[in-house]
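To fix ideas, we now present one chain and its tokenised fold:
***
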Amino acid sequence: IRCWSNIPFITMPLSRAHGKSFAHRSELKHAKRIVVKLGSAVVTRGDECGLALGRLASIVEQVSMLQNQGREMMIVTSGAVAFGKQRLRHEILLSQSVRQALHSGQSQLKDMAIPVLEARACAAAGQSGLMALYEAMFTQYSICAAQILVTNLDFHDEQKRRNLNGTLHELLRMNIVPIINTNDAVVPPPEPNSDLQGVNVISVKDNDSLAARLAVEMKTDLLIVLSDVEGLFDSPPGSDDAKLIDIFYPGDQQSVTFGTKSRVGMGGMEAKVKAALWALQGGTSVVIANGTHPKISGHVITDIVEGKKVGTFFSEVKPAGPTVEQQAEMARAGGRTLAALQPEQRAEIIYRLADLLTDQKEDILLANKKDLQEAENKGRLALPLLKRLSLSTSKLNSLAIGLRQIAASSQDSVGRVIRRTRIAKDLDLEQVTVPIGVLLVIFESRPDCLPQVSALAIASGNGLLLKGGKEAAHSNQILHHLTQEALSIHGVRDAVQLVNTREEVEDLCRLDKLIDLIIPRGSSQLVRNIQKAAKGIPVMGHSEGICHVYVDTDACVEKVTRIIRDSKCEYPAACNALETLLIHRDLLRTPLFDQIIDMLRVEQVKIHAGPKFASYLTFSPSEVKSLRTEYGDLECCIEVVDSVQEAVEHIHKYGSSHTDVIITENEKTAEFFLQHVDSACVFWNASTRFSDGYRFGLGAEVGISTSRIHARGPVGIEGLLTTKWLLRGDNHVVSDFSEHGTMKYLHESLPLPQRNAS
């Protein structure tokens, strides 16, 4: 047990044989020994006089947290020159003001000039203050820090190298954080032609090369280089076409154009890359990231160690396929080509996919069998998830029927004119439907989701990125292969991409420049996590499916048990399954109520009593822990209400705006319920299970949305379209419509073109 911020926690076991760098970001969490290099731009203020204290405190907090997890942390820091410059300027100003006050009077104070300060003198004046600051900050976390000043000569002299190595190992053994800096007060200029001459030689020109040399000498697992840019770009940051490089491989230098170095410090990005590649060659993984951005600097180090996609990761292992960024760009280009096809061509692709699902069913079921066997062997999936994972001949036949429905209904989805207005003479405006762009659909344990969503994306002309759960890897692989085979008949194979890399969902949600809409398909926890992680990308979906059935006093006995059984027992894992049964108080202790309870017992549904229901019973079932529970299994809550008005209020308070049902023969009561319940789907005398794109005649759905913007309920083709405005004129300018202009606005509605009858 260690303590950090006065909170005890158990340290994590960390062990790794050094010699080879990590191949993937996800492995960085296993890093035991870590060097954090703080560039001058990170440590110093914008005016280069003094330290960025808030930023430095945040870095110390993160390093302390990792140290207290059982890792061995080292810091290579800049900042002595800036801190010394601040102190010396203050001393010079104070000295000059005293002298001028004595000899020249106060009137000449404003004319004082500060001489240019020599860097070595600034370093000498600032080094002790910088270290005192680090010591004070680390003391807050019960961690001791030690200072080590080095020069290039310390690495060239074998005895000094051994002494340095021994000192560092002893400090780490005693749980002390070494803070290393070049001794800028006496450092000589770098030796010419001695840089990067193999693994054992690198000149300590600056703190980048010092950090790399130190990382290799100490057999460090990870080197984190913090600067004032997000990472390595393929061209100077700020230029129009500059793109952040997520993973950099040895040999990629030719594809990068380096700019100038940062506002302070000795080295630029080119020096950082050379040092990083040298460290990588020596077996140390490297990440270059931004340590100055106010939104991420407070957790940049811990994010890197957790394997999150931050900065540029240097790796010697090049993946076989494209990166997820490249896949998104391919999906964008493929989607635009797809949208430009004739409607009949898009429909032909979907018909072909439907045929492939039935023609290749043996191969599909064989792949699915592998997934089921692996899931059962590992024992990680609950029974409801195993049911979702399973495919069958009947499921594939239903999928094919749904896909053919999509193909038939997609003929005029893209490019359909929904409004025409004559603005003025020879100036006509149209509003037409267009694809949203690139969709990211993340789904769990549902391989049947892949062809459904693919067909909807094809019909609506959208590019598509698919991220399936690893539990369905074999099924997803073959279904994606068949989808691309169908797309190939019109040369748009790249429009639908399956993400097979080790991308974390949270990292995918940050690709706001490449993805236009995220659609999660899975557990409520998955949806909530994605809604929390998505920054700048809209998320369409529902976090929970808490569906209600309200049994009114005027309900038909025969209808009640059939609808409740179907809503709860037909597929209890579905998001549109009944979770809470609301019963009018007058129905308690009636034959109808007894029939409901008997039916639920026969179906082996576990009953949880709501607070009011429990109060009516002497011996009640277990009282519900929360009325906002989605069971996803053969369980449900029963609660009592006094009226349809109270049922509506209960649904609004505890429901999730998904699907809610009333069972009654009273039309007036039913209409009140239909009009007042504010949910995506509201039914009268029908099962909650009808809340489905296929059953609505949409062919399929990408999900059920409970949001109030853009699309709501089962989302089919229409929900994957947006609009754009087309204005056709003839030398029209706004000034012609001014008070003294020659033209007048007409704003006449024009008839819409006939829709495709087929």
